[in-house]
């Protein structure tokens, strides 16, 4: 989704070090107080090693790493700052992980001037002399132990010989190379040079069996000198050859004698590449003749970049000959001028795996090239292939980053540093940044015009300065916040907020030069001073040229009220509030608001910090709270930043100390309880650097810029696309998990089935089978929106298939398939072999079961009503989810780019699904289907999971089914009579239990129970004995058996109490009460009033509350609870003591249940009349929003298009004035004070859902219905929804249309 595409870790100013690893070669250089490791092959960042992780209390402002050394054998990197030396090594446990190895501090302010490390031996040159340290293990810690020290001239370079016998040092005070014995520390030899020595290299050859050293030195005039041991005294070195390449190959006098140092090409680097090239080349190829000579003759190769940018490759032969006579030097190749431009100062040839290529690294400028061994030796101009280039060195790159400030559109960004700032512009589609300029240190800064203009504010002179030509200044009071905002003018506008919350709105005038002009100076009309006043992120709407007004400011009060503000740019500019959300939060630490008016708050919580995300669409059906998460105090939040996708979906970046979490919305689903917002990506900046993240900011194109220490990390979107791509871009991923669903998605199919669009589902299945069987890559052709707006039709209607969104329907092919069992079986077989892309395993399993259930429903649709079908779908989904969790206890993750779903084991189906079965007219068939789902042997745990004794309405059926459950419990428990006694006693079958005990000879309680159950429990005496035994069983915590004895003693109340308190199973209590007393018993009423309703109110479960009120014969309340705020309903019922939970209006099926119940009986009609038209209107709009959140946008449109706002069901004939009055959504349906509503009167409903009482009223409705209404009340077909109605729905769903009127079942 997002990948690290560019790092800005500074450019090296001096020589580099390198470390060869088995899988890569690293280049190492210093950057301020850190060491940077890059992959030499592509310059990608590997790790930043900072001194603060080794010396946390060390204050190093303005200081930088002075020396770096690399131990190639032990893979150790050593660096120093002043007197402190730090060492890091690769982890033995985790690959590519660096850990702290050891540390060393020199005494008495003895500054380190030179370092070298080899095979655990550390040579340290300082102002006082030269020291050698060895590694020891002390208290399980690696420690450097001083081996010896000597006072010598301050060393500039120190190099250990590969044999660890000698140390060669240089000094800035003279031109001599001094050799010391590593064992004793004594100086062995002093080698004078005519010029200062800039490089010292010990040559070591595997072919030379002796350990004699060979020393190579390079002086400041680029002369290479080779020192070999004296024959009679091998401890002393003498000069054998001096090579002055510029003298041998003269350049024009106009070209300055400046180029890179001469480098010796290590045979361990060049040799494998030469062998690989020889192996891959033809024997008679003339280009490989040089390769064969290099391998056979054992030449030493030397490379240098000349001042004209050409590469010069020299060879010296016979160095390993004993004695080393007849040293011969010659040129192998010389490339054309300009091969490397500009000419670098340092050159490095490094291995590139086990291939015939090599990696050439230059510095400065820092660049890496790929070069073939063949072309290198032949000097071809096209030999170099540029792989990566580092940024140019900048003055402020080693200054700590404080914050980022971007333009409204994210095209430019200002980087505020500790000692100034820079302006950058986004390039390469968000994959790079280009530096535009810099500015001095200041308190506030804004960047405009994509980074081309910068304005700064300083409180020292209270001046806002626009850095244009010439500069423009404006005096302002002390400013607390400064930001830029999109404007309809040529330049963006500047908004300055003072400490007393006055707001300056400033334009930039272009006549003739950019000039600051004060446009408005005012404060928002607030009753009290806000705690926070923030800018609304303009990322989404700043990209367009729309003239539509947008919010500019967000104010947060001490009470947690969010207010959105926009500036009315009229003759008299003023700030106007466009919305308000009451969060009820306080103690804020930070807040931020997105373009889509999504607000995030971070407040203090007893357990740490609470992050909440709020939507601006607040109503009685939506509190606005979308997401809530508690972070521990050990994981504080430091930063919040929003961006928007092209379709205006919001993405939130939450910044922590070392990582950033990206949160985005995900669709609501019927297949799990996933949160509304999820972490779509976690960016671990800590894996690259130990610095704390100072700031992060979103730029255009979904690019995220992160600052840590003095380094910047640019994360861009992935470049690979396609339906089957696992590495999709961030915007594509967000659109996939929160955008509209494809027609075949199981959630879309389920909602279509729930809302009766069975024919559409069958057509989708037919199309899916056709594509799946085609043998081509899966490519779905979406159905037209009109298909979702049609009423349910038979399958004979032709299917219209659209290739494009606005394409024309294609002609139906001859031989079109029909929905049948063979078609379904073929499709299921195809899906099991090849799952559809972008479906999680959980969703894929639901898709298959929905297809199979649709077939069963089609074959049995005459026997099963709509509510029964809804229950069957949900029941099958429940068992699918549990089977998946049982087979894979871990969190299931999608394959092939699917969406991870954090689903878990569910103990029961939702009360929503139980209520569908409760209102079904085919409960006998549902009971058979449920029993079949339990493998024909339903236990009480199965009955509780399916809510059987909640949704069954027939008492006789409940009794017969309880007997079945009792028998199954008995058989499932190895014929233990105690497991079934509760159910048989509830049925009054004591003798049957007595007979079961006769067969339980193995049971230790058989004799006692046979004697006890032989008594007559209709007599008070034995009832009392049964109750005493029940209390004894309670003391032994045999709760279910105790409830059975309470029933035996005739105390249903006590048995129910045990079920509620000890067993926490109110379903069992309801089952016992309904079986024993029926549906109107006093114990059942107590259970419903004292247990079920408090649970419903506490959990905000309106389904459960509606069912309880229905059984209590308060069917008016059964309807009202679906739409009425629970607190209002509790207050009206004098139930103020009830605990009220969060309202759950996130289920579209609530509207379906409401449409069924509102006119089902006279009582429900009376309840409907208590619900105002405005409330029902807001409820339908909320349900439409939920549909959109589920990805079912077409169903949301169909809902608002077809919903009928019916009139009250109880009314007398009104007078003429009332008959002519149109119903208003803001007024109650019935005025309880109107005495004309005294008698109840039935009415007719036409085919469009409009109420008609008589012919006269039909005529009135027909006359009053506006022409724009899309319903034909004369009985004709419904015409298509007009474009104005589409726009009106968009306004309503976004909360912008507040004066819509609802008439005659239409939104007119």
Quote the distance from N terminus to C terminus.
44 Å
Please bin the fraction of helical residues.
25-40%
What is the averaged pLDDT score?
83
Radius of gyration: 41 Å
Number of helices: 34
Q: Unreliable stretches, pLDDT < 50, 5 or more residues?
A: 247-257, 794-814, 889-903, 1209-1308
Largest sheet: 4 strands, antiparallel
Strand coverage percent: 25-35%
Structural class of the helix and strand makeup? alpha+beta
General shape: elongated
The total of beta strands comes to: 60
Strand order of the largest sheet: 1-56-55-54
Can you tell me about this structure?
The chain is α+β, with helices and mostly antiparallel strands and 1308 residues long. It is built from 34 helices and 60 strands. Strands 1-56-55-54 form a four-stranded antiparallel β-sheet, with no helix packed on it. A hairpin with a 4-residue loop joins strand 43 and strand 44 (561-568). Helix 18 (990-998) packs antiparallel against helix 19 (1006-1013). The chain is elongated. The model is unreliable at 247-257, 794-814, 889-903 and 1209-1308 (pLDDT under 50).
């Amino acid at each position: 989704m997002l990948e690290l595409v560019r790092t800005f870790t500074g450019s090296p100013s001096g020589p580099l070090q390198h470390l060869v690893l088995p899988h890569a070669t690293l280049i190492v250089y210093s950057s301020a107080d850190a060491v940077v490791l890059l992959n030499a092959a592509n310059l990608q960042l590997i790790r930043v090693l900072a001194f603060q992780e080794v010396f946390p209390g060390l204050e190093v402002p303005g200081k930088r790493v002075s020396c770096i050394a690399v131990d190639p054998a032990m893979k150790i990197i050593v660096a120093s700052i002043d007197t402190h030396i730090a060492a890091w090594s690769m982890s033995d446990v985790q690959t590519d992980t660096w850990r702290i190895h050891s540390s060393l501090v020199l005494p008495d302010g003895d500054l380190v001037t030179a370092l070298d490390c080899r095979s655990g031996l550390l040579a340290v040159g300082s102002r006082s002399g030269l020291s050698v340290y060895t590694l020891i293990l002390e208290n399980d810690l690696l420690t450097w132990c001083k081996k010896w020290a000597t006072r010598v001239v301050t060393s500039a370079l120190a190099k250990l010989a590969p044999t660890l016998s000698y140390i060669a040092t240089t000094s800035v005070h003279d031109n001599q190379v001094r050799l010391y014995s590593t064992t004793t520390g004594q100086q062995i030899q002093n080698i004078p040079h005519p010029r200062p020595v800039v490089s010292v290299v010990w040559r070591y050859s595997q072919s030379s069996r002796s350990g004699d050293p060979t020393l190579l030195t390079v002086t400041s005039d680029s002369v290479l000198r080779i020192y070999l041991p004296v024959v009679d005294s091998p401890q002393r070195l003498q000069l054998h050859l001096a090579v002055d390449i510029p003298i041998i190959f003269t350049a024009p006098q106009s070209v300055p004698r400046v180029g890179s140092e001469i480098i010796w090409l290590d045979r361990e680097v060049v040799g494998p590449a030469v062998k690989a090239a020889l192996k891959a080349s033809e024997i008679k190829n003339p280009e490989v003749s040089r390769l064969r000579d290099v391998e056979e003759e054992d030449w030493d190769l030397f490379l240098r970049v000349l001042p004209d940018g050409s590469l010069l490759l020299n060879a010296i032969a016979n160095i390993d000959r004993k004695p080393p006579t007849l040293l011969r030097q010659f040129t192998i190749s010389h490339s054309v001028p300009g091969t490397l431009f500009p000419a670098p100062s340092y050159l490095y040839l490094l291995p590139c795996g086990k291939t015939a290529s090599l990696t050439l690294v230059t510095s400065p400028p820092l660049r890496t090239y790929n070069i073939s061994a063949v072309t290198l030796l032949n000097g071809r101009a096209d030999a170099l292939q540029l792989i990566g280039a580092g940024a140019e060195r900048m003055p402020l790159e080693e200054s700590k980053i404080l914050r980022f400030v971007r333009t409204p559109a994210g095209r430019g960004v200002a980087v505020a540093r500790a000692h100034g700032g820079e302006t950058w512009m986004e390039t390469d589609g968000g994959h790079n940044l280009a530096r535009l300029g810099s500015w001095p240190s200041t308190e506030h800064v804004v960047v405009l015009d994509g980074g081309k203009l910068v304005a700064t504010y300083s409180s020292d002179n209270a001046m806002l300065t626009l850095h244009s030509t010439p500069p423009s200044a404006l005096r302002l009071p002390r400013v607390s916040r400064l930001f830029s905002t999109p404007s309809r003018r040529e330049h963006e506008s500047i908004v300055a907020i003072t400490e007393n919350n006055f707001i300056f709105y400033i334009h930039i005038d272009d006549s003739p030069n950019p000039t600051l002009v004060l446009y408005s100076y005012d404060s928002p009309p607030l009753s009290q001073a806000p705690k926070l006043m923030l800018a609304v992120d303009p990322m989404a709407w700043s990209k367009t040229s729309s003239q539509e007004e947008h919010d500019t400011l967000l104010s947060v009060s001490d009470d947690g009220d969010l207010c959105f503000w926009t500036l009315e740019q009229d003759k008299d500019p003023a700030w106007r509030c466009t919305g308000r959300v009451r969060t009820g939060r306080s103690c804020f630490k930070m807040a931020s608001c997105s373009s889509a008016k999504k607000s995030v708050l971070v407040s203090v919580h007893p357990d740490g910090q609470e992050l909440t995300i709020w939507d601006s669409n607040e109503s009685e059906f939506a509190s606005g709270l979308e997401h809530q998460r508690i972070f521990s105090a050990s994981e504080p939040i430091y930063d919040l930043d929003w961006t928007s996708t092209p379709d205006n979906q919001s993405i939130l970046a939450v910044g922590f100390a070392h990582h950033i979490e990206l949160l985005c919305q995900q669709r609501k689903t019927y297949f799990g309880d996933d949160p509304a917002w999820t972490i779509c990506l976690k960016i671990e900046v800590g894996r690259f650097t130990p610095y704390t993240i100072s700031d992060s900011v979103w730029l255009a194109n979904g690019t995220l810029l992160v600052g840590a220490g003095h380094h910047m990390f640019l994360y861009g979107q992935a470049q690979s696309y396609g339906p089957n791509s696992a590495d999709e871009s961030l915007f594509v991923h967000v659109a996939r998990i929160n955008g509209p669903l494809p027609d075949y998605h199981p959630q879309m199919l389920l909602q279509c089935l729930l809302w009766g669009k069975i024919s559409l589902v069958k057509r989708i299945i037919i199309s899916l089978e056709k594509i799946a069987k085609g043998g081509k890559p899966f490519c779905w052709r979406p159905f037209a929106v009109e298909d979702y707006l049609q009423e349910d039709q038979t399958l004979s209607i032709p299917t219209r298939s659209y290739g494009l969104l606005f394409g024309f329907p294609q002609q139906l092919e001859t031989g079109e398939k029909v929905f049948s069992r063979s078609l379904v079986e073929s499709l299921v077989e195809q899906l099991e072999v090849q799952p559809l892309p972008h479906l999680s395993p959980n969703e894929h399993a639901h898709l298959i079961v929905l297809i199979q259930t649709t077939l069963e429903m089609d074959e049995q649709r005459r026997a099963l009503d709509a509510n029964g079908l809804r229950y069957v779908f949900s029941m099958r989904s429940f068992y699918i989810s549990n089977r998946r969790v049982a087979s894979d206890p871990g969190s299931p993750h999608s394959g092939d780019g699917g969406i991870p779903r954090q689903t878990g084991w569910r103990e029961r189906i939702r009360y929503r699904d139980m209520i569908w079965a409760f209102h079904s007219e085919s409960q006998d068939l549902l009971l058979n289907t449920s029993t079949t789902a339990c493998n024909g042997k339903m236990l009480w745990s199965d009955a509780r999971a399916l809510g059987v004794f909640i949704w069954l309405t027939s008492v006789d059926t409940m009794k017969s089914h309880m007997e079945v459950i009792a028998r199954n419990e008995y058989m499932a428990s190895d014929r233990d009579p105690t497991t079934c006694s509760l159910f048989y006693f509830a049925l009054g079958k004591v003798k049957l239990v007595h007979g079961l005990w006769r067969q339980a000879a193995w049971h230790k309680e058989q004799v006692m129970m046979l004697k006890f159950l032989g008594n007559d429990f209709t007599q008070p005496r034995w009832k009392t004995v049964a109750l005493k035994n029940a209390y004894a069983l309670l003391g032994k915590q045999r709760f279910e058996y105790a409830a059975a004895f309470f029933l035996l003693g005739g105390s249903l109340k006590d048995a129910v109490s045990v079920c509620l308190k000890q067993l926490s199973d109110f379903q069992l209590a309801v089952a016992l009460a309904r079986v024993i007393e029926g549906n109107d018993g006093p114990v059942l009423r107590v259970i419903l009033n004292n247990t079920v309703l408090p649970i419903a109110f506490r959990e905000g479960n309106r389904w459960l509350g509606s069912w309880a009120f229905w059984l209590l014969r308060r069917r008016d309340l059964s309807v009202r609870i679906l739409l009425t705020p629970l607190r209002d309903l509790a207050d009206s019922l004098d139930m103020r003591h009830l605990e009220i939970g969060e309202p759950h209006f996130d289920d579209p099926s609530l509207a379906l249940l409401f449409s069924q119940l509102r006119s089902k009986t006279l009582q429900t009609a009376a309840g409907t009349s208590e619900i105002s038209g405005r409330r029902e209107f807001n409820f339908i709009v909320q349900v439409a929003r939920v549909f959109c959140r589920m990805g079912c946008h077409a169903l949301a449109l169909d809902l608002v298009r077809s919903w009928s706002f019916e009139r009250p069901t109880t009314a007398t004939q009104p007078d003429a004035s009332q008959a002519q009055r149109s119903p208003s959504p803001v007024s109650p349906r019935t005025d309880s004070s109107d005495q004309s509503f005294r008698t109840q009167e039935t009415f007719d409903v036409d085919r469009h859902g409009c109420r008609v009482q008589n012919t006269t009223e039909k005529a009135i409705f027909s006359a009053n219905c506006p022409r724009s209404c899309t319903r034909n009340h004369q009985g004709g077909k419904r015409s298509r929804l007009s474009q104005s109605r589409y726009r009106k729905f968009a306004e309503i769903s976004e909360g912008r249309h507040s004066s819509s009127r609802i008439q005659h079942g239409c939104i007119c």
